[in-house]
Amino acid sequence: MRCPFCAHEDTNVLDTRSNPGTNVIRRRRRCPKCDKRFTTYERVELRMPRLVKKDGSRSDFDRDKLVGSMMLALRKRPVATEAIDAAVDRIEERLRSLGEREVPTSRVGDLVMRELARLDKIAYIRFASVYRSFETPDDFREAVQEIKSPRRRRK
């Protein structure tokens, strides 16, 4: 593994941890040249379904784009990066478990909405306002009622 700080060709692994719930291995590394430490993650690379957009065009699934969308909705919200990564992992796992070669982007959007509702209610409303193209205050009111209604049923 090349050092991201000084580009030295070799690094030392200090600690390795696997997460039993996911297929991810976390490695803590140190560069012998600059003595800086960093973390790497190893994931099993499985084939993700292609995404079918509303206009019928197709694109490859992009984890970074998904994380970016969620981070935008979660901007300045008190949600840990690890929680976001776990949510994205659940979305990816759900998409893989569908066993389909192509998935509409609307299904991905619904999965993101579900995860954001679990993580942060404000981020859910932010994402929903763009995803559902809110145009009136009533659209916001309906989304707030959606997020409140499960709470009422639990009481």
- Shape estimate: globular
Structural class comes to alpha+beta
Helix content: 40-55%
Measured by DSSP, the beta-strand proportion falls in 15-25%
Q: What's the tally of helices?
A: 5
Describe the structure.
The chain has 2 domains: 45 residues; 108 residues. The protein contains 5 helices and 6 strands, in the order E-E-E-E-E-H-H-E-H-H-H. The protein has a 3-stranded antiparallel beta sheet, with no helix packed on it. A 3-stranded mixed beta sheet has the order 5-4-6. Helix 2 runs antiparallel to helix 3 and helix 4 packs across helix 5. The longest helix is centred in the C-terminal third of the chain and has 18 residues. The relative contact order is 0.10.
Summed up:
This protein has 5 helices and 6 strands; from the N terminus they run βββββααβααα. It has helices at 63-73, 81-97, 105-119, 121-131, 137-154, and strands at residues 12-19, 24-30, 37-43, 50-52, 58-59, 102-104. A 3-stranded antiparallel sheet has the order 1-2-3, with no helix packed on it.
List its salient traits:
155 residues; single chain; alpha+beta; three-stranded antiparallel beta sheet
Task: Summarize the topology.
Layout: E1 12-19, E2 24-30, E3 37-43, E4 50-52, E5 58-59, H1 63-73, H2 81-97, E6 102-104, H3 105-119, H4 121-131, H5 137-154
Parallel strand pairs: 4-6
Antiparallel strand pairs: 1-2, 2-3, 4-5
Helix pairs in contact: 1-2, 1-4, 2-3, 3-4, 4-5
